[in-house]
Amino acid sequence: MDTTICPWCHTEIVWDEELGPEEACxxxxxxxxxxxxxxxxxxDLNDELEDDDEHEHEHxxxxxxxxxxxxxxxxxxxxxxxxxxxxxxxxDSTVAAVLDEQAEVPECPQCxxxxxxxxxxxxxxxxxxxxxxxxxxxxxxxxxxxMYVCPSCFQIQYSLAEEDREQWxxxxxxxxx
Length: 177
Description:
Elements: E1 2-5, E2 12-15, H1 42-54, H2 88-101, E3 116-123, E4 143-149, E5 156-160, H3 162-173
Antiparallel strand pairs: 1-2, 3-4, 4-5
């Protein structure tokens, strides 16, 4: 039995090898097979705001006595700024192809899109913490970090490279006796 995790509701989906993987999450109905992004342009948001202004009316159920909620900031897709210059449909299909080849696919903490492995960064100038309890440094330099970039909002995230994870686990947990 193999498992899949739904990227939207984080439900673990167990599927039978004979029947193959699920195409949609049975819990939330999310399509599990494709990289998808909903792009909202600034014009779309402005049109929506104009429509709201035209249809303003009094709501009797205003629970907090406020006209509008504070702190609501619209999130724009940063990639949308390049729509007039670049072919973003091809960009999306290329992103999907690259994601299919990656062994690890972290989710962007900012916009929740899947992130692309941009490369590896070597770290040689590093002073490790050495807790008294362990008596050894947690991580010895040099080591490498995988750098992931979000294809939608361009946030960057790092994780310890596979070859250096063993050092981390060994230094903290030690070898089995």
